[in-house]
Amino acid sequence: MHDQIVVGYVDYDTTVPARIDRRNAHITVDHVTRARDCLDRLSSAGYDCLVSAYDLPGIDGLELLDTVREEHPTLPFVLCTDRGSEAVASRAISADVSEYVRADEVSDRAAAVAAAVEERVTEHGRRREPDPGGEHLSLFFEESPLGAVQWDEEFRFERVNGAAEEILGYSEAELRGRSWETIVADTDRERVAEAVAGLLEKDGGTRIRNRNVRKDGTRITCEWYNRAVTDEDGDVRSVFSKFEDVTERKRHREELQRYETIVEALNDAVYALDETGRFTYVNDAFADLVGYDQETILGSTPQLIKGPEAVERAERNLARLLSTDGPDEITFEIDVQPREGDPIVCEDHMGVLPYDGEAFEGSVGTLRDVTARRERSRELRWLRRVVESAVHAVYVTKPDGTITYVNSAFEELTGYTRAEAVGQTPAILNSGTHDEAYFERLWETVRNGEVWEEEIVDERKGGGQYVARQYIVPVAGPSGEIERFAAFQVDISNRKERERHLDRLDRMLRHNLRNDLNVIRGCAENIASRADGEESATAGRVVQRVDEILDMSQKGRTVATMLSEDRDRRSVDIASTVRDVAERVNSSYPAATVEFDTPSRLVAVATRRIELAVEELVTNAIVHGDGSDSEVAVRVEAGEDRVRIEVEDGNDPLPEMEARLLVDGEELGPLYHGTGLGLWMVYLVVNRSGGAVTTEESDRGGNCIRIQLERDGM
């Protein structure tokens, strides 16, 4: 045979088509790895023959054969399999395969395929010639496992075989002489009529799938392979058809197509491996995950994307699936190495393809990227350890208040074990101290998505109360709905007890001290008014010293009260505050001069004590100045995100110890005096307001003390 043969060869293995192309100069092989690529080229490539492997990605070789026969019913088609299968052979014969080559029955697959191609292409050329004898047609009827029909020139039943009688439910006698319309459903008659007309016009062979009606009225789907036989003059003598009931196959194929559509649409990567461990199918998500195109993946082994450890783990799990007592499917984690980048942690959900007996046919599975999930899991484990080791009590509830988790500190503080607390509500801690309105406010706050913060008096298991600073945080899920409440309790029982004792001691000392000092002051004033000379001067110094002690006592009281307060920062109009301070100090010290320069309004974030700090600085500048000649200037300026308050005087520079008190909150020494306590108070107020204090020499040669606070964006 000397004419050039063009063969379309479909297989992910390149070895056999390359050998055929190299050994046979008259055979040109167009090799593709996917059936879809072959179908795309079929109309334009001018193939004389198609050769296809059975195991293909997407659609298998038989499905490719079915599709080819719809448009090219006579094109030679050679199907190759790695091993024999009665089911595959039966389906191949039914679909009118030209040749069936089993690799396990030949020593040289390339030579066997080339020989099959030459023989079938030559035979195809002979089949186009008239068959004057009836031997071939008789053989067609006798050997066909399918239904067979011989039609006359009017396309009426002339002869049917036993398989046809069984499929259609009619006997040959019942059908002979009747039109083809007898067995064709009304909805398909127009399409079948066109095929009939083509055959009667000597249009070669046709293949058609249509709905037929059995004698009992049952509708079935049949696939028909038809060929016209002509006489010596070229006139149609008979038309022969063979057909099969493909109702179940059609339903199965449609179902497979639906499944394939679903698989392709999945976000998870899907793969199939044959019995040798080579990829036969992957979806687009798989290719996107690993970074290789499907041409590279198909036919390769998992070593393409897995290291030795991952491969070994997959093989161990496959062995479990294949064991007699193994599970039907298994899920495990592996590291997948993409073409580029770091390894991806994936969850591999694996199963095996159904098979009969010992003939394992391969495995299927999905890969899901769980890198982020593993990282979240690691973070959650760390967070759990942190919460478990926290010194403060933590408990978590459902939206209805049912406790789902408590940490060790909760057990220690409340006396309830984890087993005793989980499943209960926080009502087990209710001491009866708070009324119903308290808890209504609590629930209203947290159910609105806001954080609850307040002191609570709870009761331990077995009795005994404790005071806690409680924070309840709503935790929303992905939908935005609140799924949990996380509560944190800081035990402040000891602090509250100390505060009660200190407050009692403070009230007692303050009352007694002020009374005694006032008595001393009165006596000293009496002496000063009656005595002369040194005695009067001494008595005057006593009065002055008593006033300083009383002032220091009041400042100490103010500091103590402030330290027991929360750092409740708020919006404060600093401009208005400074003006109020200047007017008040001017009234108290009329001989002094307090000048101020402020905008009409300037808002900062500070505690409510900030006014006290500004007044202390202005008063301190006057008291330590030149008496009636004291001049103090107060300025308020706005920065981009800060508010500056400057208090400037003409006094001597502040002593180093007092400057450190003011700027850094330096610890008070045993020799501090009233001024030092006042400056320390300024430091505390500014610090608790989130600000800072600095000092420098003023342009007038005195002191410039600057307070900087956060500007409020309101």
How would you sum up this structure in a few lines?
This protein has 714 residues and is α+β, with helices and mostly antiparallel strands.
Helix-strand blueprint:
Elements: E1 5-10, H1 15-23, E2 27-32, H2 35-45, E3 49-53, H3 61-71, E4 77-81, H4 86-94, E5 99-102, H5 109-127, H6 135-143, E6 147-151, E7 157-160, H7 162-168, H8 172-175, H9 189-200, E8 205-213, E9 219-230, E10 236-245, H10 247-265, E11 269-273, E12 279-282, H11 284-290, H12 294-297, H13 308-322, E13 329-336, E14 344-352, E15 363-369, H14 371-389, E16 393-397, E17 403-406, H15 408-414, H16 418-421, H17 436-447, E18 452-459, E19 465-476, E20 482-491, H18 493-530, H19 533-563, E21 570-573, H20 574-588, E22 593-597, E23 603-606, H21 610-623, E24 631-638, E25 642-649, H22 656-664, H23 674-688, E26 692-697, E27 703-711
